[in-house]
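Render this sequence as a predicted structure.
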Amino acid sequence: MRISPRRFEDAQFDREFVISNNMKAARQARTGFFVGSIGYLVLGIIVYFIDRAFFDKISLFLFVVVLPTHLLAAIVIKYFEKVYLMQWILVFANIFSGCCIFVIGYFAPVDFAVKYGYGLVIAINLYGFSLLRMRFFFASIASTSILLLYFFFLWYFIKPDIRDLVIIIGITSFINTIGLISTWFFESFSRHEFMQAAIIQKQREELSKAHKKSEDLLLNMLPRKVAKRLLAGETAIADRYSQVSVLFADIEGFTSLSRKLDPELLVSILNNIFSKFDEAAQKNGLEKIKTIGDAYMAASGLPEENLDHASKCVAMGLDMLQILQMINSQHDHDLKLRLGIATGPVVAGVIGRNKFIFDLWGETVNLASRLESTGIADSIHIDTNTMQQISSLYSVEPRGDIEMKGIGKVKTFLVKS
């Protein structure tokens, strides 16, 4: 793993890091400018008590220029946090703060400037390293500029003893080097942290997409309410419904058609038919249960209970007849549809572990299946319970008692319109 303050190879990614770092730097610099203001205020108080004449010389500059500019910087820096070149603003601010020290040092007694001046310069550079959060390149420019200006100030204005000058240069340069090394490591780890955060964020997004894909797949396989229960952690889902209408449909002529067509074309035709059935189920508020070969099963009244489940099922059946008629006319087929609808209680639940299936059980399901198998092509075959619930909406005619396997004789009806 490479740890260094070098730019990222991806220019856009590097720009994102710069903006992110600048936003953090702006928040930290705001505190830094406030601390700097306090530092200059404390310096003024100390000078006031130890040398009143010195204080009189610098008080106007201190309270009219230095403190207001630092306080103003603390207030306005937040408006520059998204500026790409904000680090140059911090460089200027750090050099300006150093120059304020030089001005104060110019009016200070020589012994004060020699003994304490370099300590103030070190404080200014450490202030830049720690509180202004400058990156390595900019911290190098700011701190080196301040030191060079300070060495020129000493040599030109203060003219200290050569031994004192060498000691001051040695101490300030050594501490400045330590500060730059710490800044180098800080930016290196900041870049590494930013890169790791980006990797984690990308992994979270990919995980979220995978979770969404799995959730969508589950919602496509199961009713939304049931799928949500599975996602919430339920493992055994089984519910009893007192009134549900179940629809079975079977395509007559499809088996003979399958002997004539290529498998790809056959599947394409069936997929087209069932896709339109699915649209009709969604339109009428039915829950598709499953398909078996060329048979289609749906139900109304679950998992959300409703009072008009029977009429919705019949409406679905009529739509299915129209859909198949349209497909026959478009593709010159002679397919027919038998439909059976029964109304009554059912048990619904989810079975399976690897491939979940939402299914229905009970006498109502068996009756609907038998109504379909004993029905008439292109007709909707219904039981007495269904007839009683839809008779005010649809025209029906009695078909009589029909013998059904495993059930016996059942009075049935045909929906005419």
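Summary. The chain is about 65% helix and 15% strand. The mean pLDDT is 88.
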